[in-house]
């Protein structure tokens, strides 16, 4: 008994983009003009945003609300983005990139249009003078008059050429454009046979449509069998960088969180009870207080709590340093996967990794915020993995113990 298998075919998405290359080129030039005209407006907007940010910066840190912190971060991002846009417009970055990428296509396209505008006699004359085969010589013969059939064939080929140029142009200028799939036909390997190898789903073989030679094939499928264990496509690297970003935000008190007023009141009472000067209160002392009060769930918000209690500015990485840390973190994912022991499932301790990053970047003022592991056995295990990572990355290795 044969079993029929229903094969699901992929639906092709129709490309609905219309127009000509000339129209698209004109649209791009218009867009560049609009960008240049928007420069004064962007400069004016930048000044307003900077004034608004300066007003927020004048406030005392202990007066900041969660909305103020969010607004401050939002304004800084807007200002940074706007500055980049202004610099890009002033340097004509987009225009230069467009010209470099599309100039060869535009030259071929407009040369193509000029050929169409030329009269038939001029085309024939040019082909005869060239004295060698070109695309035109297939359709124009100097010894024979140009027939209506040749003229139609010539125009068809020019249209195909323009369509190909338009397709290439869209691939460069339009990120949403999907490249047309080109089917590569397999040709028969037999001598004196220019047939095409066609796959027969019914017979499970490849057959030449001319000489009839066939070959049995096995079909591989991406669909898993219910008996086979499914592969975990996990997004470990993605989750790790997100967790790192969260830790950096918490340390710099950039995260938005709502801590009940009761928690602050309890902490204030404990500080008075211990006769601790608020100005001498630091992250480590505050953690001990939270531990005693059974507020361990607020450990990650210690910088934020400390900022509100004693009005001290939290640690603050520069944008450049923070970008370096994140890049280094992404870079170590590959060597970690290579040198990670088979029996280890988790990533390295984040505090350990950030401690090592600060050592490499000479950010000594931040090292104390990232304590190393207390367990010497685990610390040695981390050092062993980290030493291999440093060798792979060609970084200097600093021994922990």
From TrEMBL:
Q: Give the InterPro entries listed for this entry.
A: Poxvirus_VLTF3 (IPR007031)
Protein name stated in the entry: Poxvirus late transcription factor VLTF3-like protein
The species this protein belongs to is viral metagenome
What is any one GO biological process for this UniProt entry? regulation of viral transcription
């Amino acid at each position: 008994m044969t079993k029929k298998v229903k094969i699901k075919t992929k639906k092709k998405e129709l490309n609905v983009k219309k127009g000509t290359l000339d129209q698209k080129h004109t649209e791009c030039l218009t867009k560049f003009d609009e960008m240049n005209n928007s420069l004064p407006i962007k400069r004016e907007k930048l000044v307003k945003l900077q004034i608004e940010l300066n007003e927020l910066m004048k406030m005392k840190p202990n007066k900041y609300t969660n909305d103020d912190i969010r607004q401050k971060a939002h304004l800084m991002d807007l200002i940074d983005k706007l500055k980049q846009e202004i610099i890009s417009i002033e340097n004509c970055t987009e225009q230069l990139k467009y010209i470099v990428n599309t100039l060869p296509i535009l030259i071929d396209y407009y040369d193509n249009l000029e050929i169409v505008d030329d009269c038939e006699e001029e085309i024939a004359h040019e082909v005869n003078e060239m004295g060698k085969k070109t695309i035109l010589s297939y359709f124009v013969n100097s010894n024979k008059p140009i027939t209506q059939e040749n003229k139609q064939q010539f125009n068809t080929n020019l249209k195909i050429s323009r369509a190909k140029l338009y397709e290439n142009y869209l691939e460069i200028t339009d990120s949403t454009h999907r490249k047309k799939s080109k089917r590569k036909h397999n040709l028969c390997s037999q001598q004196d046979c220019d047939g095409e190898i066609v796959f027969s789903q019914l017979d499970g073989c490849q057959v030449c449509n001319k000489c009839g030679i066939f070959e049995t094939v096995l079909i591989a499928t991406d669909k898993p069998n219910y008996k086979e264990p499914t592969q975990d496509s996990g997004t470990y690297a993605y989750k790790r960088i997100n967790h790192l970003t969260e830790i950096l935000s918490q340390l710099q008190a950039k995260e938005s969180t709502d801590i009940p007023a009761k928690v602050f009141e309890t902490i204030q009472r404990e500080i008075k009870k211990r006769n601790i000067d608020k100005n001498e209160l630091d992250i480590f002392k505050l953690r001990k207080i939270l531990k005693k009060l059974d507020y361990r769930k607020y450990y990650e918000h210690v910088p934020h709590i400390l900022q509100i209690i004693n009005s001290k500015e939290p640690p603050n990485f520069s944008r450049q340093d923070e970008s370096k840390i994140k890049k280094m973190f992404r870079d170590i994912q590959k060597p970690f996967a290579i040198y990670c022991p088979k029996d280890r499932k988790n990533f390295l301790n984040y505090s350990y990794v950030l401690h090592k990053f600060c050592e490499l970047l000479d950010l000594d003022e931040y090292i104390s915020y990232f304590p190393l592991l207390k367990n010497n056995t685990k610390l040695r295990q981390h050092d062993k993995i980290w030493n291999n990572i440093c060798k792979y990355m060609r970084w200097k290795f600093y021994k922990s113990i």
